Amino acid sequence: xxxxxxxxxxxxxxxxxxxxxxxxxxxxxxxxxxxxxxxxxxxxxxxxxxxxxxxxxxxxxxxxxxxxxxxxxxxxxxxxxxxxxxxxxxxxxxxxxxxxxxxxxxxxxxxxxxxxxxxxxxxxxxxxxxxxxxxxxxxxxxxxxxxxxxxxxxxxxxxxxxxxxxxxxxxxxxxxxxxxxxxxxxxxxxxxxxxxxxxxxxxxxxxxxxxxxxxxxxxxxx
Length: 222
Prior knowledge:
alpha/beta
């Protein structure tokens, strides 16, 4: 494998790295997505029962990954924690725990990094972008798991706390596929709309911070 994206929830792969996955695959790289939870604490929006939500979100993830051309997708079953700004809309089953309560997820990531040997690993930055405990935990575990094994990249939105070292502007075809992949997440429609309202430019421009690097690289870096 050349490129591995490690994220906590279904849909986290497409907002920050959907275009990256499309372009890397188009250039012949083998790509992978490792998702640590099944997103069972997300909103249902009345599209399914609470009990059906985990399977529904995994199905949405599989359709997204197929559109993005992902070569290998694996979904683990660590618990999905709640966001800090949660609302009162119906959600799937919440165990009361989050990824922060499961440090053994670090070893699960490292096992796959050792087996798949990606050259590049992409994950959330240390602050999780929005402070979600699962985002923060995923960043912590993936950072340590990738140490000495892969070049490490964080999502780096322009308004974030990390300097941008790599900027990827998506051509029309890649943007179209990214939008199609986003559209698979019908149960997360409110999150999709919030993302588009808050940071629409991140749809067509993906930005990253490579740990240990300075300056800004425009375009593909592989």
